[in-house]
Design goal:
Blueprint (H helix, E strand, L loop, with lengths): L1 H14 L12 H7 L5 E5 L3 H10 L5 E7 L7 H10 L8 E6 L3 E6 L7 E7 L4 H13 L7 H12 L25 H10 L8 E4 L6 E4 L8 H6 L3 E4 L20 E3 L6 E3 L11
Length: 280
């Protein structure tokens, strides 16, 4: 009972929303049109847990979700029926599978992130068959609880505190049964790709005799959302609100003479007669 009470208190605290630090960096309409099944959606979250993850990982990306498409995009009729059971919304809705600290692994409409700062990480060269296998893993793990203990231990591991050795009492390096284990958001997605042997950030070992290179799969419990951004095996795709796809198109962006005050709280109109500061 005490453990459940503590977990609930931690979960409620970390789930509280905070003021977002950025706005209008992503053209959601274009992103929702271009996104493909098995794409990883990175999110700059707006909760306390997001701020913690940002600080620990030194990255803007605090959450990751797996895009599975619309229900009719799923080839396997058994999976389609499973999604129908788990999701009661429109069958034409674009969907992601994600894990949240206060909800576990769930299905969410893509439009829930319409006002967030987003980025797509696309697995390079993935086959259609493996795309469906990645989606199958995510869908069949809907309902799993979020592993709060793992999240806390991962924070200890990344911080490498000298006060508490990161292996002391940690579950990160213990063997666990996949059928009963809890997962955090990035681990769930990492497991989905690992089971088809698709690399994220594998460990590369060089044989001293033959100089041949071998890949070793990483412990997926150590995966963070930013790992998909750093991975050379995922293509990073951005859809800015004002694209500059053609040569000199950036010259036609709708700039104004306004700018933000140094504290970022006020919009100031620039005085055209004000001399430019030429101090170095």
């Amino acid at each position: 009972m005490l453990k459940k009470w503590i977990n609930k208190k931690i979960t409620n605290y970390l789930s509280k929303k905070i003021t977002p630090t950025r706005e209008h960096l992503c053209n959601f309409d274009t992103l929702s049109y271009e996104i493909r099944p098995a794409d990883v959606l990175l999110v700059e979250g707006t909760s306390r847990i997001s701020a913690v993850i940002n600080s620990i990982t030194k990255s803007a990306w605090s959450h990751s979700a797996l895009y599975i498409g619309r229900i009719h995009d799923i080839e396997d009729p058994t999976l389609r029926e499973l999604i129908h059971q788990k999701y009661q919304g429109s069958p034409h809705e674009q969907l992601v599978v994600e894990s949240w600290i206060n909800k576990g692994t769930i299905i969410t409409p893509l439009k829930a992130y319409k006002h967030d700062h987003l980025r797509i990480c696309r697995p390079t060269g993935i086959t259609q068959q493996d795309t469906q296998e990645v989606i199958r893993y995510a869908v069949t793990h809907i309902g799993k609880q979020y592993d709060v203990r793992q999240f806390l231990d991962l924070g200890r591991f990344l911080l490498r505190s000298k006060l508490i050795p990161y292996r002391m009492g940690s579950i990160l390096f213990e063997q666990k049964t996949q059928s009963t284990a809890h997962e955090i958001c990035s681990e769930m997605i990492a497991n989905a790709f690992t089971q088809i042997s698709f690399p994220i950030l594998p460990i590369i070992v060089i044989d001293e005799k033959t100089q041949s290179k071998k890949l070793i799969k990483r412990n997926t419990r150590l995966t963070t959302p930013s790992d998909f951004d750093y991975s050379p095996y995922f293509k990073i795709i951005k859809y800015p609100l004002f694209p500059t796809n053609s040569i000199t198109q950036y010259r036609n962006l709708p700039w104004t003479d306004e700018y933000f005050s140094p504290d970022g709280k006020e919009i100031i109109k620039k005085d055209i007669n004000e001399p430019e500061n030429t101090d170095n």
